[in-house]
Every structure is written in C-alpha cells, then in structure tokens.
Amino acid sequence: MNDVELVILDDEQEAAAAAAERLVRAARAGGNIVLTGGSSPAKAYTEAARREPDWSKVELWWSDERCVPADHELSNYGLAKRTVLDRLERAPAAVHRIRGELGKEQAAAEYDSEVDDHPLDLLLLGIGPDGHVASLFPKAPTLQARARVVPAEPGLEPFVDRVTMTLPTLQAASEILFLVTGEAKADAVQRAFAEEPGPETPASLVRARNGRTCAILDRAAAAKLQP
C-alpha cells in the first residue's frame, strides 16, 4: 500500500465529501478532470457543485461509458449531468462525452482521437465488487490494450457493450483518486490495495506513473485492510 495514500473515513457521506473537496480544488485549479459512474461519486458530484458552482476552468472527460443514449439511466454522462452539470452556475470549458449510442467500435475510435495527448489532471475512479475499474474487467483482453480508448465487452450486469480508457491512459493521470464505499467492496479493496497487483484485480494495476494515487474509503470498504 506504500504506493497509495489511504484516507479512511467513517461513512459514505464523509467519504463523498472528501472526494468532493478534491474535485473542488481541481475545478478551481483548472485542467482536465475525468469522471466516473456510481452512487458514491454521484454524492461527491452534488456536493462539489454546491461548494464550487464555477467549473469554467476545466474540461470534463469520462473514464468509461456504457453504449446507451446520453439520457439513459445507465449512462455515466447522464449521471454527471444530473448531479453536477445541471447544478453549476458556470459550465465547464468543454464536456467530452463518450457517445456510446454510436456503438462501441465507433464510439471508442471517436473518443480515442478526442483524448489524443490531453494531460489528465484528476482521474476519479470507483472499484467494482469483482475488482474491475472503469470498464476493465478481471483477466479481460482489454487489460493488454495499448490504445488510449478501446471498445469493451459487458463484464457484469447490466450486460451492455462499453467503451473504456485503457490502463496506460489511466496510469498517465497526474492524480488518481479512488472513491470506494460499502461492505460489498471490502474484498475488492483488500485485493486492490493490500495484495500483489495482477489482472485478477484490475484496480490493483491502476497507479499514477508520474503522480499521486489516493484512495478515499469508508470504514465498511476498508474493513479487511490491516491497520
């Protein structure tokens, strides 16, 4: 765990607030912020928009997306639109949405060219109960991909195609911030941050090559970590 700063807080609300403060700092500093999906990030987004309603200095990206329309309930972009974008007084300088409705091949190709060599300043990620991160699933061929963005097969329910940033793209971020809460994630957290990294737990492979990596956890998610 020496390569990851661990921040363990009492509950999901405190963890989301801590992540929100990191987002606020990034919004004020400017640059490129990469968002993710999930209920805990959604709480962080709402709190970040409340604390800082001006995101005009940043451009927003997404680590992955399901191949659904933007207004679909499963859309990571749609989640961010409801919880942060629609609540801002000043919108981001640019919003780079993965157009999943185009299908995984076309959407991945389009997003790969859009990401290009943009420096990613803050990358927010969750971890699935199986240890997946973004849409990189255990032992999946996408873990070997070296393009910036690739199409991905459904890894778990809901079984829809996906588009995801690859390991090299995620690892290139200046700051990687994991936000993980809940007892159901405790096994995955242990494998990601306390065991040898490997393709069985993709989250264990995501560390900033030339920056910092931090994990904000609630006590339930951190329950199996050694003190």
> Could you describe the largest sheet, including whether it forms a barrel?
7 strands, parallel
Cα distance spanning the termini:
11 Å
**What is the molecular shape?**
globular
Average pLDDT rating = 96
> Under the CATH scheme, which architecture would be assigned?
3-Layer(aba) Sandwich
Helix content: 25-40%
Q: List the strand order in the largest sheet.
A: 1-10-9-6-2-3-5
User: What's the number of helices?
Assistant: 6
Helix-strand makeup class? alpha/beta
Q: What's the total count of β strands?
A: 10
Q: CATH top level? A: Alpha Beta
Using only C-alpha atoms, the radius of gyration works out to: 16 Å
Number of domains: 1
Kindly estimate the percentage of residues that lie in beta strands according to DSSP: 15-25%
SSE ordering: EHEHEEHEHEEEHEHE
In CATH terms, what is the fold-level topology? Answer: Rossmann fold
Key traits:
alpha/beta, Rossmann fold, three-stranded antiparallel sheet, globular, seven-stranded parallel sheet, single chain, 227 residues
